[in-house]
Specification:
two-stranded antiparallel ribbon, 31 helices
Amino acid sequence: MQSTCRSIRRLSAFVLALVAASAAATAAEIPSEHLEFFEKQVRPLLAEHCYECHSTQAKSLKGGLRLDSRDAVLKGGDSGEAVVPQKPDESNLIQAIRWQGSEMPPTGKLPADKIAVLERWVELGAPWPDEPDQPAPAVAKTYDWPALRAGHWAWRPVVRPPLPPVAAAKWSRNEIDRFVLARLEAAGLHPSPPAEPATLIRRLYFDLTGLPPTPEEVKAFVSVAGKSRSGSSKSAEAAYAAVVERLLESPAYGERWGRYWLDVARYSEGYGGFVDSAALPNAWRYRDWVVAAINADMPYDEFVRYQLAGDSIDKQHAVATGFLALGPTYIADGGVEEAIALAKLETIDDRVDTVTRGLMGMTVSCARCHDHRFDPYPQADYYSLAGVFNNTKNEEIPLASPEEVKAYQDYQKKIKALDSESSKLRGIVRKENRDLTKEESARVAELKKQIADLKRDAPEKYPVLHAVADSGSSDMPLAIRGNPLRHGPVSPRRFLKIVAGDEPPLFTRGSGRLDLADAIVDPKNPLTARVIVNRVWQHHFGFGLVRTASNFGTLGEQPSHPELLDWLASKFVGRKQGDFAWSLKRLHRAIVLSATYRMSSAPSDEALAIDGDNRLLWRMNPRRLDVEAWRDSLLAATGELDSTVGGPSVSDIAKSNRRTLYAAISRNGDKFDSDTFLRLFDFPVPRATSEGRTSSIVPQQSLFMMNSPFMIARAKAMAERVAKDAKHDKARIDRAYWLLYGRAATDEERQLGVAFLGAQAATDSELSRWQQYAQVLLSASEMMYIN
């Protein structure tokens, strides 16, 4: 920014005090996702547009204002404080980039999306990682790679630890329990008792399939498991193991865990808005590939390799490269060279971020404009990976015969030829600065009609796969301060030095995607296995062993059970007898068969006082169902669920009986009716790879349950189902409880239900008394939580 900003008013002393108080906050008090937002979106923006005039490296510091450190931003410049945390409208910086008084940068107003980034940053309190008040070094950093690898847990080699000694060894059902129990005993805690059989079977079904067990399945399991109290524990254990195997072989297993993978892959049907508005109508083919691969228990290393380079490995798995192709593809907002280059770099950055954060828990994308501030990711390493995707193009692979493809393309050529003739004629008239002649007007009208007729009768485009392909094999120059038109040294395509060593082998096969895939799934890479076993653990327990599932760097959290994490990771990639050999099903089996998984979620005052966050796993975490499992369980309980696997997405899932997995999703969350429903219940925004699910409780959710046509339709279906299944209200109430909650109604619940059903229905309600009662039961918290 090149002005002294003299026209911007100074803020009051009260605001100054707020700023000073904010400055005292440390990075440890700032949520990691806010710090990642700063590093990925804010710092690069400041570096690109502001540092030339507002940093210690500026030839002439303008307005006494520096924007290259937290202290400098809070201090401000000649015109007052630059930022008032949480108050963008009162911040000089935001006023300036909005061109309200001052016009920053003076070379041209920032695009709306970049202004929104800075506004969001200030709204969050202007988070900035804790670092000295000094600029980025003028010379490249030097790295002591061996010392760095030894200095942080995530970069050390995975080594299988020995099983720790424990006092209460009889509690353990497998090795997982030994690691958990050792931590508990060291803290003076003990594990919670086993969950009740009905609670456990419901938990298991939801975790492995995202669907509830039927009343008959619950009763059958409880009948066998209940005998364990009288000494027949082997029968109960066998029954539980049999249920686990059946669920792992269910098609619903792949649907459940495929959806979690789609979070990582930031899956959508396109429609990103603004400079990323294209549709991806065949994205569902990638979704179906993911579900099928997980159901087939495709080894995870193969699963990853196909998604990065399936087109180079086996053409039938080219669909798997939707992992890359379905991300945002930015187009320039205008035809200028800089806009085109920046749009391409934004597309590349999305792929670098998805691959490194999603697969390895590394925030490499933060090194786009400068060496990473906290982790050993040099900017040159970023462009070593960016170069791979700079040689990668999107491709649509026809799923039709060559004749069909040619016929469609020939038809489109006719439309383009007529359109070109019309445009050419109009261009001549504009160039000659005159009106159309009578003959020309008639010809333009004729062309317009012909084009309209052709478009009306045009055949639908043949189906395609959204995939990627190689477009070159050249290395990419480093972009100085993230500006792709300011070239630095060329960065050879190769893997990250913190993982691969001082001089990683060069990528030589085409774009380098296959080389990159092999480097990621190399068993010597300590990050890939740790990240995926942590993600699986996270979805079983509500939290990962590392709670920052997409950031294993120095700003991420330490693992709560580091030896257990490494034991799982080493077993996962191992191929000896008893190892998992990259099998996700074997990993799931080990987790759900453990005593740790089978604990009750009941609280303990003693344990809460010592470990209130349950980081040591003294009980199972009660969890709220995600939107998919909750909606699917409603349809399953009412008997309406359509269990068909695969196929095109549904634009309005609230009007469909398909599983929620099959909802159409737009990247911007504003294209499909399904988007509105999903956003209401905390569905992750697919604009970037997702770390995990969040859970909120807002009034709109309750209003949806009370008033939405979806809930009213479920209430009617539920009332109809129990009316068919039982003859009297008491029996119908019990049947409803079994269908919805997997248990019988208590005497009190039965009495309340009978009393409600016996009262006169309100005359202004469109629902019968039973339908109203069903809606209440469907909306209860017990439907949304598992213990």
